[in-house]
Amino acid sequence: MSHGGTATICGSMTYSAQASPVGTVRLVGAGPGDPDLLTVRAARLIGAAHLIVHDGLVDARILAMVVPGAELISVAKQRSRHTMQQEEINALLVARALGGEDVLRLKGGDPFIFGRGGEEVDACRAAGVPVEVVPGISAAIGCAAEALVPLTHREASSAVSFVAGQCKGLTEQDWSGLAGHGRTLVIYMGIATADAIAEKLIADGVSPGIPVAVLEKGGRPDARALRTLLADLGGLIARERVTSPAVIVVGQVAARADADRIATFAKQAELLA
């Protein structure tokens, strides 16, 4: 005989209350900014989601694609100031999914390229929460393409490396071999530490005269592409008042950066807005 979700079996009480279904967390790459650079799957998920946890780097034009009434939670991070610590973000994703909600975790660029997506996947898996990753165009790929910088080129570069310029212990790292003849180095989050980065690369054997491109706010109407040499990297950023988000490209391919093309894109975006 059953009474309101309980069943009596051979004189003992057995509880058979059904657990709430667990939601899915989807880590979705939003690309460098331009909504046209979203993958088809990313655009579909954004347009259908009712709970979105997003980074500060996600372009406002992409957030405008959400359904009316969707809950948007910003977990924006800036240098030395975080809306939420990473552990809190992990806990938020897990808690909402365990509560039965599908969570769209929207991240600038690609979730697995300096997006801490791996930590969020680990947290979900440890809690038994289904998780999916939808890749996005990374900042390096998107910004370089916009500025016509081929990160690899048969005549100039057969290898490319990505590094974080804000990581701890910058001076203790060995960057020798990452930039130079036939190699391209792309530095994320390096604007605030540009002087130290240039000094470090030169100390590790990179020529002070190697070309450098600073690609600022790629995929956005105010994008800029700036060129200089490694020895002048910090000076360029100070003179031009470069701000994040931006990536730094070091190598012969950087000399191909097309600043005029970036300016043309910006004007076209203004006309279309």
Automatic annotation (TrEMBL):
Q: Which residues form the Tetrapyrrole methylase domain?
A: 25-233
Key word Kinase present in the record? no
Enzyme class, broadest EC rank: transferase
Q: What is its EC number?
A: 2.1.1.107
Q: Which domain of life is it from?
A: Bacteria
Pathways involved: Porphyrin-containing compound metabolism; siroheme biosynthesis; precorrin-2 from uroporphyrinogen III: step 1/1
What are the GO BP annotations of this UniProt entry? methylation; siroheme biosynthetic process
Belongs to which family?
A: Belongs to the precorrin methyltransferase family.
What organism is this sequence from? Sphingomonas sanxanigenens DSM 19645 = NX02
GO MF terms held by the record: uroporphyrin-III C-methyltransferase activity
InterPro entries noted in UniProt: 4pyrrol_Mease, 4pyrrol_Methylase_sf, 4pyrrole_Mease_sub1, 4pyrrole_Mease_sub2, CobA/CysG_C, Siro_Cobalamin_biosynth, Uropor_MeTrfase_CS
* Keywords assigned by UniProt, alphabetized: Methyltransferase, Porphyrin biosynthesis, S-adenosyl-L-methionine, Transferase
SUPFAM superfamilies registered for this protein in UniProt: Tetrapyrrole methylase
> What's the name of the protein?
uroporphyrinogen-III C-methyltransferase
